[in-house]
Amino acid sequence: MPHVEESVQLPRDFKGFGEEGGRVSWPNRARIAVSFILNYEEGGERSMQDGDGLSEPYLWEKGSTAGSKPGARYLNSEHDFEYGSRVGCWRIFRLMKEFGWNMTLWAIAKAMERNPDFAKACVREGHEIGAHGLRWLEIWDYSVEEDKQYIKDTWLALKEATGEMPVGFYFGRGTPQTHALVPIVLKEIGHKLLYSSEAYNDDVPYWIDVPWEAGVAESEREGMLIVPYNYDCNDGKFHMAPGFMTSAGQTYESYLKSTFDMLYREGGKMMNIPMHARIVGKPGRAEALRNFMKYISDKPDVWVATRRDIANHYKQTYPYQSSGRTGGN
């Protein structure tokens, strides 16, 4: 059973922004902010080489049919992950360069260490390094102290591998308190969190109050800025059920366009496009991704930005005020 530290549990919020929904005033009167996110995990997944007793069975080309094969190397899995780091990541990198856009990487520290050329190129081109974990592992049952050490090790290893100290994060595989522990740990090591994406519950950023600031004067509270993530536009659904139901990219492309059209028409929203180098980095899917990129590049008033830029804009435009989702509104 996982440990639950009640003192740092973040409350649920079923109300959100209510009937009108959240609307953000984006730079240059853009109707939508679009965030491309590359989950860079290849080299950080489970493997015999790293003492895990099996090759990674999750989220690769054979999907649920692959099963788990403990006790020896499963080269099929290993090679699919290697495709991501050898080929797929560079294909996505080139697409971003073609359109002149920057993306955020949910970077696994061990994966960055094992592909230093890619890490350096991403930083050189202005892509954001966000924290995704030390390795691509479930840490669900970690104690509080193990959790805190894992967070600290993640940030320091990413700094060593990329030269950047992340200001935002999405672990996705943490304990019930990882989300809340991150800003606490970063403060202990002299670093400051800008935003968390450990949430899937809205189409716009928002602020939350944090329990450990309850006894702090309101003028000194910092809150936590949430830049929500999503699963529905995630290319991981090619290997999930229910998902995009085919390995072809056309269903994916159509869904991305439908999502964009709705949010663009509503205005003031943010769209996430979560990617994996070993999935959408395959040629047929990458072509569908490029079609989508071309589609939105032809629309006026679209702001494609890193999550760091989105968070900085939101923080400056809607500064935190206690008990206010959009800075006190």
Concise structural overview:
With 329 residues, the chain is an alpha/beta fold. 34% of the residues lie in helices and 12% in strands. The chain has helices at 75-99, 109-114, 116-124, 144-162, 178-188, 250-266, 283-297, 307-317, and strands spanning 32-40, 104-108, 128-133, 168-169, 195-196, 206-208, 224-226, 269-276, 302-304.
**Unreliable spans:** none
Tell me what portion of residues adopts beta-strand conformation. 5-15%
Mean pLDDT: 93
Using only C-alpha atoms, the radius of gyration works out to 19 Å
Distance between the termini: 40 Å
Count every helix, treating DSSP H or I runs of 4 or more residues as helices.
8
Category from helices, strands and their pairing: alpha/beta
Quaternary organization = single chain
- The arrangement of helices and strands along the chain is EHEHHEHEHEEEHEHEH
Helix content: 25-40%
Shape: globular
How would you characterize the largest beta sheet?
A: 5 strands, parallel
* Total strands: 9
Write the SSE topology.
Layout: E1 32-40, H1 75-99, E2 104-108, H2 109-114, H3 116-124, E3 128-133, H4 144-162, E4 168-169, H5 178-188, E5 195-196, E6 206-208, E7 224-226, H6 250-266, E8 269-276, H7 283-297, E9 302-304, H8 307-317
Parallel strand pairs: 1-2, 1-8, 1-9, 2-3, 4-5
Antiparallel strand pairs: 6-7
Helix pairs in contact: 1-7, 4-5, 6-7
Task: Explain how this protein is built.
- The structure is a single chain.
- The protein has 329 residues and is an alpha/beta fold.
- It has helices at 75-99, 109-114, 116-124, 144-162, 178-188, 250-266, 283-297, 307-317, and strands at residues 32-40, 104-108, 128-133, 168-169, 195-196, 206-208, 224-226, 269-276, 302-304.
- The strands form three sheets. Strands 1, 2, 3, 8 and 9 form a five-stranded parallel β-sheet that branches.
- Helix 5 links the parallel strand 4 and strand 5.
- The longest helix has 25 residues, at 75-99.
